[in-house]
From TrEMBL, chain B:
Primary localization: membrane
Native species: Microvirga aerilata
One Gene Ontology cellular component annotation held by this UniProt entry: plasma membrane
One example GO MF annotation: transmembrane transporter activity
Residue spans crossing the bilayer: 7-31, 43-61, 68-86, 92-117, 124-145, 157-178, 207-225, 237-258, 265-283, 289-307
Top-rank lineage group of the source organism: Bacteria
Subcellular location: Cell membrane
Entry keyword annotation includes Transmembrane: yes
Descriptive protein name: ABC transporter permease
Pfam families with a match to the protein in the record: BPD_transp_2
Keywords, ordered alphabetically: Cell inner membrane, Cell membrane, Membrane, Transmembrane, Transmembrane helix, Transport
Coiled coil: none
PANTHER family listed in its UniProt record: ABC TRANSPORTER PERMEASE PROTEIN YPHD-RELATED, ABC TRANSPORTER PERMEASE PROTEIN YPHD-RELATED-RELATED
Statement: the UniProt record of this protein carries the keyword Nucleotide-binding: no
Length: 514, 326
């Protein structure tokens, strides 16, 4: 890979940054440079280390090793505040604005100008300065307008104005275009170009490759916590970038399955649509089949799962479980029909941390143990819970005494799975079932998935790791912006093709950029 | 935001005002004494303690916390005033009361902001401790206030009754504090999203702490104004005052979820509640239905707040297909 020769020193240089979380190394020496007035695209799959690198740059995390320098002086921020003082502005996907305050108050929230001698806000000066800042980002709005009344794109420009107020030298934009309309994206790009011409360095993180290609002069591709390559836009192509992004080392072995899909359809989804979230989604999952859903951050993966399970209302479309159409979709009807849903957020949605394993397994389905009106058999519950605990290979068999909070992340996940298995689901939707659990526990979750389908269940597997989806699925669907963008049979699994499909542009036709 | 949502939110925001108009119309038609200047002045004077409490409560509610101890603080500082400060000039008494109640508020604030105890529990604790101390120092007997204090009730400033002056001063200071100082605006930021505020570098804990100090101090102030009006207090004094204060603040548009509202609303809410109570007295209603009416008003206030917050949350939602959402 060629490097670009320049005469001026870089604005920002990052050299050999390493970082581990809980003993797992996530960054293996990340290095890149940023020159004043350029935009650098930072690309990589989910989990490639983009976010961690940027969090280190923004002072959220501190690196274990490596060096950074900003404007020629060593740079090692201990907090976001220090980073911002040093001139690094990090604009997160989730904007850090207060919708209940006005634009000007958001701009000056940490350093309100005060009238001389009194502790009161100098509103006149603040308004004047706010107008100047808004003019710099081409936002023609009264500074007194509440941020809550602004569109998403306008809020982003307010964040950029805030960065200008903090005199940012480096602006990090994390997925800035995902929830913007086309027109808003164009406006954002115009501002980015203006900032470049003023010597600000931009780091642009995005899955929307077209956007990155349009606005960035150079790109750095990360994979597995290391830089795979950095090059000028002119020397890169979309397929070339994708092939750089894929090819992560495989750190898991996927157990073999003894059965294959059967004929009958377990889940039939037709024309599922919710305005703003999902558009005309149709697919089948057969009994004994694992169908994987692959999509990038913000593609609508989890949203689709919630729609199918009935947690969010549908605008139109039908769902059939084992041939029976859900007439009044909702979580209750879904469960009755035989759907199970493991959400991606087990801490908040799946488990009662202070309850025992037995209680966690049995609580949502006590009527199975009913022996009389309002009376359940504690013995039957304990026996069944112990059986399920064995089936999911829980680390302990003391299911009555052990509280959920005392289990490891992997074992907590198994308890949630056991809870659903109690209902003998026909179709199990698993959203990120292995997120945040160790390699050993992952293996066991994989085995549970296999056993589920071998015993006549069907699994809809959602994962941000392409390898995992490829290792476990009979078929893979790709999703982007709430639309199915590709379908692959096991024989045709190909990482680059799947990633390319997951990144396929969706939405109103994008005009060729000028 | 589409126009239907906009109208719904406007209606929700207008609900307390419509309620106020309804109260005026109903009682006005039932009694001709109700809609008079003398009666209205009376209402404002009677509403003064709750209005002051509600103004203090607003600070706490804005940070998405709650202060259940204000009634107990009123009682305890009232006991201190009546039992130990009978001989001192009233301004000295007032300063001591304010200092003691601010200290009690500071204890709440420290428990909530720095020790991370849920405000509902922390202030429930100080409620019982405060009442317990007050009952033991007074032996649960009535505590009488000296003439120097009760005479303030008849005092006027430029012809305006002292209670109204007290409310006006408290209101003006609180309004300036919330609207015109960095602290006030940061209270709103902390209440909207404490994590985001801390991330932005705001001293979120300190801000929450001071909101409890203000609530405590104003509870003392409310107790002082109330002392001038009633002359003596018993062990039931200030009971459930916290609920009137919370109801008044929420009726006036301050959200229990933090970040929304202000002291103007607290004033309005206190007046609304007192107007309803006054109307019930004037038409000679059965005293046993008073709590039902108050409960109904509180219910409306909280329901409106919940609906509006849910609605605003829904409007804040982001979409992955933004072009479909016009």
């Amino acid at each position: 890979m060629q490097t670009v020769q320049r005469s001026s020193p870089p604005l920002l240089s990052v050299e050999g940054i390493t970082k581990s979380f809980f003993g797992v190394r996530v960054l293996h020496g990340v290095s890149f440079e940023l020159w004043p007035g350029e935009a650098l695209g930072l690309l990589g799959e989910n989990g490639s280390g983009k976010s961690t690198s940027m969090n280190i740059l923004g002072g959220v995390h501190q690196p274990d090793g490596g060096r950074m320098s900003l404007g020629g002086v060593p740079y090692a921020p201990q907090s976001p505040r220090e980073a911002s003082r040093a001139g690094i502005a990090f604009i997160h996907q989730e904007l850090n604005l207060f919708p209940n305050l006005s634009i000007e108050e958001n701009l000056f929230i940490t350093d309100f100008p005060k009238r001389s001698g009194v502790p009161f806000i100098d509103r006149r000066w603040m308004r004047k300065r706010a107008r100047e800042l808004l003019a710099e980002v081409d936002l023609d709005l009264p500074p007194t307008r509440l941020v809550g009344n602004l569109a998403q794109g306008e809020r982003q420009l307010v964040e950029i104005a805030k960065a200008l107020h903090a005199d940012a030298k480096v602006l990090i934009l994390d997925e800035p275009t995902t929830s913007l309309t086309r027109r808003e994206v164009e406006r954002l790009f115009a501002i980015v170009n203006r900032l470049k011409s003023r010597g600000v360095g931009i780091i642009f993180i995005s899955h929307a490759l077209e956007d990155v290609m349009h606005v960035c002069e150079r790109m750095t591709v990360l994979r597995d916590g290391a830089v795979v390559g950095t090059d000028l836009r002119e020397r890169l192509s979309l397929p070339g970038i994708i092939s750089m992004m894929v090819g992560r080392s495989i750190d898991a072995i996927y157990p073999e399955r003894s059965t294959g899909p059967r004929e009958e359809v377990a889940l039939r989804v037709r024309n599922l649509t919710q305005r703003g979230v999902a558009n005309n989604i149709s697919f089948d999952i057969r009994t004994g089949e694992v169908v994987g859903l692959s999509g990038l951050m913000g593609s609508g993966r989890s949203e689709l799962a919630r729609l199918i399970f009935g947690l969010d209302p549908l605008d139109s479309g039908t769902i059939e479980v084992a041939g029976t159409r859900l007439e009044r979709p909702g979580p209750k009807a879904s469960m009755a029909a035989g759907l199970a849903f493991l959400t991606e957020d087990r801490r908040n949605e799946g488990l009662l941390m202070d309850a025992s394993i037995v209680d966690n397994i049995g609580l949502t389905f006590l009527k199975r143990f009913k022996v009389g009106p309002g009376v359940i058999s504690g013995k039957a519950l304990n026996t069944t819970a112990a059986e399920l605990a064995r089936m999911v290979h829980l680390s302990t068999d003391r299911v009555q005494e052990t509280l959920a909070k005392h289990l490891s992340g992997g074992n907590q996940q198994k308890v949630v799975i056991a809870k659903w298995l109690l209902r003998r689901p026909k179709v199990f939707i698993l959203d990120e079932p292995t997120r945040g659990i160790d390699v050993g526990a992952k293996q066991e979750v994989y085995r549970i998935i296999n056993r589920l389908v071998e015993e006549g269940g069907a699994v809809f597997l959602i994962s941000s790791e392409i390898e995992e989806v490829m290792g476990l699925s009979d078929r893979i669907l790709t999703i982007n912006k709430g639309e199915i963008t590709g379908a692959f049979e096991r024989s045709g699994f190909d990482r680059e093709a799947i990633l390319a499909a997951a990144m396929a542009p969706v939405g109103p036709k994008r005009e060729a950029y000028a | 935001m589409n126009s239907r949502n906009r109208i719904t939110i406007l209606l929700l925001q207008a609900a307390p005002y419509l309620l106020f108009v309804a109260i005026l119309l109903v009682f006005g038609s039932l009694s001709d004494r109700f809609l008079s200047l003398a009666n209205f002045t009376n209402i404002v004077i009677q509403a003064a303690p709750v209005a002051i409490l509600a103004i203090g409560m607003t600070f706490v509610l804005l940070t998405a916390e709650i202060d259940l101890s204000v009634g107990a603080v009123m009682y305890l500082t009232g006991c201190i005033l009546g039992l130990y400060l009978g001989g001192v000039p009233w301004p000295v008494g007032l300063v001591v009361v304010l200092a003691a109640s601010a200290l009690l508020g500071g204890i709440n604030g420290a428990l909530v902001a720095y020790l991370g105890i849920t405000s509902f529990i922390a202030t429930l604790g100080t409620l019982f401790i405060g009442r317990g101390i007050a009952m033991s120092v007074s032996n649960t007997a009535s505590v009488y206030f000296p003439e120097a204090i009760t005479s303030l009730n008849r005092a006027t400033v430029l012809g305006i009754p002292s209670a109204i002056v007290a409310v006006a001063v408290v209101f003006a200071v609180a309004w300036v504090l919330l609207q015109q100082t960095p602290f006030g605006r940061q209270v709103y930021a902390v209440g909207q999203d404490r994590d985001a505020a801390a991330k932005a570098g705001l001293p979120a804990k300190r801000i929450v702490f001071f909101c409890f100090v203000i609530s405590g101090a104003l509870a003392g102030m409310a107790g002082f104004v109330s002392a001038t009006q009633i002359g003596a207090i018993t062990a039931s004094y200030g009971l459930q005052a916290e609920f009137s204060a919370i109801a008044a603040a929420v009726l006036g548009g301050t959200s229990l979820f933090g970040g929304r509202g202000g002291v103007k609303g607290a004033l309005f809410g206190a007046l609304l509640i007192q107007t309803a109570a006054n109307g019930l007295v004037i038409i000679n209603a059965n005293p046993y239905i008073y709590p039902l009416v108050t409960a109904g008003i509180i219910f409306i206030a909280v329901a409106v707040d919940g609906l509006r917050s849910r609605m605003l949350e829904r409007l804040e939602r982001r979409f992955i297909r933004p072009w479909e959402i016009a």
